[in-house]
Write a structure and sequence with these properties.
The protein is α+β, with helices and mostly antiparallel strands and about 525 residues long. It folds into 6 domains: about 60 residues, no CATH class; about 45 residues, no CATH class; about 60 residues, no CATH class; about 110 residues, no CATH class; about 70 residues, OB fold (Dihydrolipoamide Acetyltransferase, E2P) (Beta Barrel); about 80 residues, Nucleic acid-binding proteins (OB fold (Dihydrolipoamide Acetyltransferase, E2P), Beta Barrel), CATH 2.40.50. The protein is built from 14 helices and 20 strands. The chain has a 5-stranded antiparallel beta sheet. Strand 8 and strand 9 form a beta hairpin. Helix 13 crosses helix 14. One of its GO terms (molecular function) is mRNA binding. One of its GO terms (biological process) is translation. It comes from Zooxanthella nutricula. This is 30S ribosomal protein S1.
């Protein structure tokens, strides 16, 4: 052992031992050699000499030694068989006999070549390749890709994917794709197909691409997307918002947001359409958000559908709204949407975003006296309430047409069209009666009903308001009532400030223009007939 330790021949080690013994322990210590080490040298020497002598005796033994000692020879045969078996096992394990350090010094390409020669998978990190070569692949935390002939997923995973597709659980499929670094866009069938292809090795993916005449270059994700693309295109075409020949509205002027009637000629993919303008017959191509269903034909109460125009708050709790078009229904309550500012959103949920269908405003001429409507109170003043009825301007409910208890902002009310003024695009409303409610009683103006509009009456200004004068007037039979002289009826020309035209207590001459006996309302004028 000492000779092996210092790298010297055995004879030289013996001479060194003799020299140290003659010089005594101090000399041995000074020479840097521990004399006790020579005991191991001596023992090794004796063992070597004994082994040489025994080998010589075995050579001199006769060939019939087995006859003299059958038991010993049988034992020896067993030992030789065990040695041969050990040698065969060692030979079988030769590919994995290299140390980890030796393998880690090799390049990844060289490790992959060795794996290939030994019939092992060649994908994975360098550490995983080393583990495979050393027979440690089973302990790897990252599973290897399956071949095309092996099952795509464990049975439980297959059932989970099938259940997700059947139920339209896109979130589960998207999460699975995201975990495998795959694209998360597309229908349930497209996402499921990506997951299946992701379990194949790169060689299997390239083989399938080759069979289908697709390019073979790129990453695994590129190969998967090439194989999925035909299905994705077919799914997208089937989910197009508009059919060929359907009459729609297309964006004519993007800056002014002007829409014109058009007809769909062809679906071009990715929410793009070829259309023909109904006005001049010219063809055109429009992109996402530039074609929509005619808002006048949309059912505002029905569920949202792809192709419909919507308005929604810009952010949660925001008072600013934006306009957009629903591009495609993603099947889980979410829609792809294109906004008017040019941005797009892949998973917009109208039901949780306070979105509303865009419905064009109606004109006053679209309403008829006596028509029953339902609206929302959006403002309240001392004279009455303003109700949103879907018109360009809200309808006004005068306090004389209300019921006891009044109204407040946000109330949903049933109203009836009382007066339509097309030239001013205004609609006056009356609240529809409710069980147990009493209408607010107005003044009695029935005595003014038969007065000619050319007859002048004495009156007194009781209130000056921005909209005009409240004038108290007396009928020929002595009945007093108050009426409104609107600012446009004070004098000829434009009145900018009613306070400059009169004051409270001032005596004036007025004419009766309109009498509403039901609600006790008078319309007066100070202008000549």
């Amino acid at each position: 052992p000492f000779a092996a330790f210092v790298g010297l021949p055995l004879e030289v080690a013996r001479l060194a031992k003799t020299s140290c013994q003659q010089q005594g322990p101090p000399a041995a210590v000074l020479s840097g050699i521990d004399p006790r080490l020579f005991e191991d040298v001596e023992n090794a020497s004796s063992a070597t000499e004994d082994q040489d002598a025994e080998d010589a005796r075995s050579e001199e033994e006769p060939e019939d030694a087995a006859a003299r000692d059958p038991a010993g020879e049988a034992k020896k045969a067993v030992l030789e068989d065990e040695a041969q078996e050990a040698e065969s096992t060692e030979a079988a394990e030769a590919p994995h006999a290299e140390t980890r350090a030796a393998l880690m010094r090799l390049k990844k390409v060289e490790l992959q070549q060795r794996c290939k020669e030994n019939g092992l998978p060649i994908n994975g990190t360098k550490d995983e390749l080393v583990k495979r070569l050393r027979g440690e692949a089973a302990t790897s935390s990252r599973p290897t890709r399956r071949s095309a002939d092996s099952p795509v997923e464990a049975p439980s995973q297959i059932e989970a994917i099938k259940a997700a597709v059947a139920s339209g659980d896109l979130q589960y499929l998207r999460d699975q794709c995201a975990g495998k670094r795959l694209d998360t866009e597309g229908s349930a069938n497209v996402l499921a197909e990506r997951l299946k292809l992701a379990e194949l090795s790169a060689q299997d993916l390239k083989a399938r691409c080759k069979d289908e005449g697709l390019k073979l270059g790129g990453k695994r994700t590129d190969l998967i997307e090439r194989l999925v693309q035909p299905l994705a295109e077919a799914e997208e075409k089937a989910s197009a918002a508009f059919a060929v020949g359907e009459k729609v509205q297309a964006l004519w002027d993007a800056r002014q947001r002007l829409w014109q009637d058009a007809q769909v000629l062809k679906y071009l993919g990715k929410a793009r359409y070829a259309i023909v303008w109904m006005s001049d017959g010219d063809d055109s191509e429009v992109g996402p958000g530039q074609v929509r269903k005619n808002p006048a034909e949309v059912d505002a109460e029905a569920p949202f559908q792809a192709g419909e125009a919507i308005v929604a708050p810009r952010a949660a709790g925001s008072s600013l709204w934006r306009e957009g078009v629903l591009l495609a229904d993603r099947g889980d309550g979410a829609f792809a949407v294109a906004w008017a500012d040019g941005t797009e959103e892949a998973a917009f949920r109208p039901d949780v975003s306070r979105a509303q269908k865009f419905v064009p405003f109606k004109q006053a001429s679209d309403f008829e006296v006596g028509q029953q409507l339902r609206g929302t109170v959006i403002a309240v003043s001392e004279l009455g309430a303003y109700v949103d009825i879907g018109a360009g301007r809200p309808g006004f409910v005068h306090q004389k047409r209300m019921f006891e208890g009044g109204l407040k902002i946000g109330d949903e009310v049933d109203v009836e069209v009382a007066i339509v003024i097309p030239e001013d695009d205004r609609v006056s409303l009356a609240l529809a009666p409710r069980p147990g409610q009493q209408r607010v009683k107005g003044q009695d103006v029935s005595s003014f009903a038969g007065i000619s509009p050319h007859e002048w009456l004495d009156g007194e200004i009781r209130h000056v308001r921005p909209s005009g004068f409240i004038v108290e007037v007396r009928s020929p039979d002595g009945v007093r009532a108050q009426g409104l002289v609107h600012m446009t009826m004070i004098r000829d020309g434009v009145v900018e400030n009613t306070a400059d035209e009169g004051c409270e207590g001032q005596q004036v001459k007025v004419r009766v223009e309109r009498v509403d006996a039901e609600f006790g309302k008078l319309g007066l004028s100070m202008r000549d007939p």
